[in-house]
Amino acid sequence: MTTLQMHTTNAFLALAKIIYPIQEPNLKRDRPLEVLCLGLSRSGTESLSKALVLLGYDETYHGLQVVSHRVSDVPQWHRLGKAKMNGDKAFLCAEEFDRILGHCMAVTDSPCCIFSEELIRCYPQAKVVLNKRRDVKAWEQSVKGTLIGIYSSWPRLVKSFFLTELFWLRLWTQSLLEPLFVGAFEQNPHRMGELYEKHYDDVKEVCRVQGRQYLEWSVEDGWEPLCQFLGKPVPKEPFPQGNSTAEFQAFKSKVQDPRNEKATRNIVITAATVVTASIALFAYYRQLQ
């Protein structure tokens, strides 16, 4: 990313933060990042995240955290996404990732999987896990039932101008997830399986070039291969489950419905204010005649 591009991006974010105030984190790494789980969303990322916490990897980053309580991470993810699209490897460094991941011992899900190559390069001591779905068709259906379509809703677009959290989440999806992740599946629905396999092949090639070992793993494999790879004892409790399509929809409703209601109220208040002001101005103009 050129200096001009970086200045333009930061100027845009500075203006956006005036209109939609947000306090960005600026973390420093306070613990080692030990595990990179770089499989795509809807490939057991939530179950794996819960498992890693049980194994002592605290904290473990997951994309649902951005939606629920880490909206303030979005500006930095925006910068990182712009840097990736513009080929700015210098900006894609551990220091910049640490601003939002410095408190984490492990990462899963998107947007982290979008930066697989960069994270592998920036954290050479971290172990790489390629979490997958055994049934690619089942993965396709899961993505279509959860992620596809939620980023291109006109009501969502309109409401995002009337609530801070919705504005930043729209920016997150439009500037990062759509161009670098979900958009490819939306534009090429008949090639979803091919694109799925390409992601894993690309990560394997990065690991091969950098001499990094990795574990191919699915939720059905359970604790044993994961713990063996990570050098951890196998817990007694069953392997965690979570974030089925139904659970995803319930989570989305729980988090987003109150925000949508607030945005709708703000739209009504704004419209009423505009109408009232217009009537008052019209009445005043009539009195002057």
Automatic annotation (TrEMBL):
Protein biosynthesis found in the keyword field: no
Keyword Hydrolase: no
Domain of life of the native organism: Eukaryota
One Pfam family named in its UniProt record: Sulfotransfer_4
Transmembrane segments: 267-285
Key words, A-Z: Membrane, Transmembrane, Transmembrane helix
Cited PANTHER family: NAD DEPENDENT EPIMERASE_DEHYDRATASE, P-LOOP CONTAINING NUCLEOTIDE TRIPHOSPHATE HYDROLASE
Protein name: NAD dependent epimerase/dehydratase
Biological classification of the source: Eukaryota, Fungi, Dikarya, Ascomycota, Pezizomycotina
